[in-house]
Amino acid sequence: MSVVIIGGHDRMVDQYKKICRQFNCKAKVFTQMSASLSKQIGSPDLIVLFTNTVSHKMVKCALSEAEKCQAAIVRCHTSSKNALEKILGDAC
User: Fold this and answer.
1) DSSP conformation class of 61
2) Model confidence over 9-32: pLDDT tens digits?
3) Cα 61 vs. chain centroid, distance in angstroms?
4) Reported pTM
């Protein structure tokens, strides 16, 4: 399963990837908006939006890409380790 995480804290990127590996998922993490974000997202199975730490522009970009590849979208207000573990536990 491939997962794209949009938002979160910069210092947590390695922990997000480690958690995804524990659930046998490939992960891409974007904490900042880049110019080519829509091209970098690809076609994941699941998109996780940490809504507390993400800009509206990033959310719009992620939602439009999710529609194209018909990925599942999960919105979570907190960007904690426990929140990601619960999301992946429910999805897998």
Assistant:
1) H
2) 889 899 999 999 999 999 999 988
3) 12
4) 0.88
